[in-house]
Structures are given as structure tokens and as C-alpha cells.
Amino acid sequence: MHPALTKTIADVDPEIAELITSEEKRQRDSIRLIASENYVSGAVLAATGSVLTNKYSEGYPGKRYYEGQKYIDQIEQLCIDRAKKLFGADHANVQPYSGSPANLAVYFAFLKPGDTVMGMALPSGGHLTHGWNVSITGSYFKSVQYGVRKDTHRVDLDEVRELARKEKPKLLWAGGTAIPRTIEFAAYADIAKEVGAIFAADIAHIAGLVAAGAHPSPVPLADVVSTTTHKTLRGPRGGMLMCTAAQQKAIDRAVFPGLQGGPHNHTTAGIAVALKEAATETFKTYAHQIVTNAKALAAALVERGFALVTGGTDNHLILADLTTKNVSGKIAAKALDAAGIELNYNSVPFDPRKPFDPSGIRIGTPSVTSRGMREPEMKQIAAWMDQVVSAPSDATLHAKIAGEVRELCAKFPAPGLLV
Ligand code: DSN
């Protein structure tokens, strides 16, 4: 955090100031492998912590319900223009508060309660908001879910087509939260076209890779592209919807006034800054290195006997099934956390265990790549992970590794941190 802001918080609320500083130190001293997290730049942080949080701006640039929008309009318009240019989209709405509200807006734009939605099942790697039963999207709509093949753990697009022909969804989602392989947007677009569905591509996890050309883009194949802004895209926590000109009106109406009130202008400014950063050559190199690092980490884990879902990765994410290591995902994740290696336990396809104590762990390389770590560090991380997973109750070993992790992290300062 900016030192001046830290001091201001400390003067008013030392308790919260200390907790923020402690979290900053934790982020500094640990290897963060949560696939959906990152380190934003100091510039993104500063924009997010700015006076823009003071302003209400219901409406869109040039059409607001409150006065005093001279600068806010320019900020939001810059953000929209940068998103359109970076992704090559006809239109961008940068107001969704995050990924789930963005996805809900897609439902509100195109479906009525009870209409059929088709998305990837959560245990196969999909997202809650793609129609999973505990989500509002699985209870207010008729949800049809596709999964992955038992033999390959990859999506079978012939099966998706067959199911879509049978169920005739109004909305078809591609994308998810635990997909280690390239998403074939063209095939989904073709299926959606055949059955007359709106095709929505959720690129929350891979937006930074898409922007940099490290993953194929769903633009212009998808009717709507939904994303968060804080994962591989390396912006503040937020959401965006991009769409074809034909869907612009429906999407804008669904976000405001359909679903949300005033946009979070400080977040919009942070997204605008992140989009400017994402348009640089440096970011392009960064995004390709995320994939190179994930492949290096996956190879090193396989060498050490880890069983990876689909055998490896094409993107920023690895899903490991720890059944062969005789430890549950939750026990492993907690032991790794004690050793300074932070990730999340995760279900694997056809997991016989419950979601709260599943068989797998999910591993991502966006954050460590932001620190400048490369292939040699991925090998070291795999070695530490293997040691911890093989001795999940050895607290002495975990403390020793946590010390080594701190030493490595000191050589790779993270963006945005000042401690
Ligand atoms: N929570 C996000 C993730 O970790 O993938 C998805 O919403």
C-alpha cells in the first residue's frame, strides 16, 4: 500500500492498519499459487484507493442520473475504449461488480425464469453461475450440465452438441474455474448457432492470456464474453461484459438498471489502468511466461509422481489428483499453507470425495510469474510441494520450508507491495 495511505489508516484505525500490513507481509513471504489470484501493480492499487470511491454515477457515460460526472464519464469511457481495443470487441460494459453479477446480467439480458441454460458442471471444472444447482442460476432456470469424458477428463464437444440438440438451451456457456486445457470457442459457437442459443464465453480465468494471444480469443465468435478483471488480467477485483453490437442494448440494460445501481468508479479506474498495462509488450511477455511456468511446474510435478488431470496444462492452471499420494486435497492444502505455499483444495472430475474435502488441489502460476519467477523456480516449488505432500503432518519440515520460501520470495519482489 502507498506509505501515505498506510499512515492515514494507522492514525485512524491502528487495528485495521496492522492487519492490512500483516496481510501485505503474508503476500510478500509466500508462494501464491491460487489460480484466480494475482498481484496488481502500484498504479492499479492507487487508482482503486482513490477519491473516485466518493462518487455515485448511475447510468452510462453521457447519460447519468446524477450530476458531477465530468471526469467520471471520461474515466469510464477510457475504460470501455481500452477494453474494446484490447479484446477487439464491438462493445464493453465495465460496470459489473464482479464475475457472478456479470454472469447474472447475461441471464437477465436473454432468459426468463424457467428457460434452459447449459453450462459445464462445477465438479468438471465449470462455474457456479453456469447453472450449478446450489446457485440462483440452477434454481431459477432449467439447467442442463455437460461434463468431461471419463477417459480423458476433457470436454467432448460431440456430447455437448448432442445434449444441446436434445435440450435446446437458450444460453450456452463455455469456460469455468478449473479447466487446464484450451477452450475450443469455435466449436461452442457452432453448437450455439445450430440450436439457436446465445453463446456466452466466460474467460474470467484466462482473460490476460486471451488479451496477450496466449490463449485463443472468443471474440468475435461469442455473442457475449464475460470476465473478471483480477485474475490473469491483473486488475482490481471487478467484472466486465463484452458483446457484439447486436447485443449491446440488452447487456447494458441488464447491468443497469436491471441488476445493479451505481458503478464502483474507483474500480473502473483501476480496470482502465490494468487494461492500459495489458496492452503493452511487457504484459504480452508476462502472459506467455505464465503458460511456460505452468507447463514447467506441471512437468516437474509429474516427474515427482503427481497425477495431473488431463496429464498437464495448456494455460495457467494445473489440477492435481492426490489420490495416488495417499493424502486428501484439504490436508495437503493446509500443510502447504503452513509451508508458505498457498493454493486451494479442489474437486477433480468424478471425485469420489465431497467438495469440502476433495481429492485434488488447484495450482496456478499468475502470481509467481508476476514476481518474475521462471522455470528454475517452478522446479524448486514442485520439489517443496512433493516434500510437504509426502509428510503432511511434519510441522518441523513445514516451518523449515516456509523459511526457504521466504528466502526465495525476497529475491523476487512482488508488484504493488511496499513492505
Ligand atoms: N472464485 C473463483 C476462482 O477461484 O476460480 C471463481 O469464481
Any overview of this molecule?
By secondary structure, the protein is α/β, with parallel strands linked by helices. The mean pLDDT is 97. The chain is 45% helix and 13% strand. The chain folds into two domains: 48-278, Aspartate Aminotransferase, domain 2 (3-Layer(aba) Sandwich), CATH 3.40.640.10; 289-410, Aspartate Aminotransferase, domain 1 (Alpha-Beta Complex), CATH 3.90.1150.10. Strand 7 (171-174), helix 8 (185-195) and strand 8 form a beta-alpha-beta unit. It has helices at 3-12, 14-29, 42-48, 70-87, 99-110, 136-139, 157-167, 185-195, 207-211, 248-259, 265-278, 281-303, 329-338, 366-370, 375-390, 395-410, and strands at residues 31-32, 59-60, 63-64, 91-93, 116-120, 142-146, 171-174, 198-202, 224-228, 239-243, 307-308, 317-321, 341-342, 344-346, 360-364. The strands form four sheets. The chain has a seven-stranded mixed beta sheet, with helices on both faces. The structure holds D-serine.
